[in-house]
């Protein structure tokens, strides 16, 4: 290296001083804290009650959210129907073990189920021994599931299949690694020539001796002959509440405490064409008899194991009200005219009878036979999916509205038209709103309903999301913008009845839409920043909203709300103040609370913050907790208190009211010590 002379060192020193000074001006100046005043009127007489079903969730069969996701079925294309009704057909993702010299497979129409007639014919050409011996381990077929099956050590899996053969059977059913070399569990099915002459249902448990996140189910034999298979299923025995939902994913929904579940989707309900629309009546009854359908809106097959009944059951398991989006005779490319819509209207009324009818009714008896004699509390029906622009929508809507109200007057009907189109001749209890926009515009929409008329039907904001470049795969800035929007909905909950984000789930192997709240694969999952943001609102439904105002000159990046809520776990009552700081400056916030009927307790109050080091920070399988809420105790709690809001942050202050022994956590947040 060369040697620096003294003069060079001096010049370098002065340059460094100038650089440091410039850095302070540009950086510190951009984030220098300002002081804001927040006033909260917590008096009961000035509070308004937020609707009891304000914040919920919206499920759409998109991104393999259900098939290969929330619905725990591990076999993809279990009934061999995905290739269509013409045979032979594609059996993807099923593949053979062996080659064409010793095994031939093809679909035919020999199933015992009239509604899904396709079955798989497997002809084995080799023998157990001799000159035409099968390969070691036998030949057969295997199914890799949805991008690999997650098989866990010591867990039990229920295998079900239908078999037919005119010869004796010796079939090994195994769970193996993706290459077949690691055997995790096996069961052998044997039978004499007469045992499987007719289609026979076979059920058994497979207990895994090992762990593999990319496993497969395989059916093999070394006996020559022909065997037919149909409806091959593999379900974990340990599902959420025993109802078939993947436990880890359903638990993430339950942790949000959703007050309603909108289902089964938007475009999924319609289909690109009506032939592929969601037809509720074809998704109920025994799972083996459901025909399944091609989800042409999102380009994949679903066996409809997750059907109308299962959605109603999921809502019940989550303690949420079901909100059914009906198919009203419209697809994305077709529309049934009013003159012939009657059959569609009748179908919807039948669907409500399935959910709510007595077990003695025609469709109520079907529900009862499925193990749920008690009616489901279906009180919300949305007619169509943002279809007000369609030619026949308004005329058809009135027919649906009249028929539903005639039989079920207590059901609240949601229109796809906005408030301006609702009138005595086109009535509605509620109207649907979808908001997809950039983060900046979403933040500005926190005032979206401030000028809405305070009379007439209320809004259901059933789909909202930040989209575009700054949304990424779920960024901090997107979550903060959505938080500001939801605070705006809280503040205007006199004209907004419900809200839910979209989409909810994405299988990382099939990203049809970004961003999403929850990301998963066969064995992992994580919440995006907007999932964790929703936790700040899970106590808002049914809470008391208090007037709040915030004052700060020349800085319009703050949005706030204040509620009083009760923690059902410990009976404590809290005043929750939420503030979004959507700007680059930290803010010193002076909070003043008036009108309280009881004191704020010295101990037990919690500050929770959602922020990160960069606006576009995202969570991932590698860093699932990069952007998550952090909680800490508030040490200077009082009716007058000073706090600091980080730049680009969502902060909540849960102030414990009344007599209490103090808390170590609030509503499930882990408590982190302040640094």
From TrEMBL:
It holds the Pfam family Alpha-L-AF_C. It catalyses: Hydrolysis of terminal non-reducing alpha-L-arabinofuranoside residues in alpha-L-arabinosides. Residues 462-649 form the Alpha-L-arabinofuranosidase C-terminal domain. It is found in: Secreted, Extracellular space, Extracellular matrix. It comes from the Eukaryota. Keywords: Extracellular matrix, Glycoprotein, Hydrolase, Membrane, Secreted, Signal, Transmembrane, Transmembrane helix. The chain crosses the membrane at residues 12-33. Its EC number is 3.2.1.55. GO terms for molecular function: alpha-L-arabinofuranosidase activity. InterPro entries: Alpha-L-AF_C (IPR010720), ASD1_cat (IPR055235), GH (IPR017853), Glyco_hydro_b (IPR013780), Glycosyl_Hydrolase_51 (IPR051563). Belongs to the glycosyl hydrolase 51 family. This is non-reducing end alpha-L-arabinofuranosidase. It comes from Urochloa decumbens.
